[in-house]
User: What shape does this take?
Amino acid sequence: MAEDLSSVVLPYVKRITLGDADDLTEVNLPPPATKLSVQFVTNAGKISWEGVDAAAIGTDYGTVAADGWFEIPLRGRNLCARTSVFLASASSSTVVEVWLDEDN
Assistant: This one.
């Protein structure tokens, strides 16, 4: 199920329980966010920039180790911000902590 964080005040942290194994959860990001950090609790996770909420994860994703923070800048050279990210795990009901922040 999608998580709409598009209107939260930064900095912001949210714990999200993911669904079935390898099913995507779309996280909508707030426009001012410039940094996304994720930590998958106990189980490794997967992150992708493309997909459909609640659908199976495709072949283009990155694996994130369990119990360690993984930081992703959201703006590139062209200053085009990402509006959403897709998260999944190989294990059902994995908790992921999402930390959003902006540069000062």
Observations:
- The chain has a mean pLDDT of 93.
- DSSP finds no helices and nine strands in the chain.
- The beta strands are 3-4, 12-17, 25-28, 35-41, 45-48, 62-64, 70-73, 84-89, 95-101.
- The longest strand covers residues 35-41.
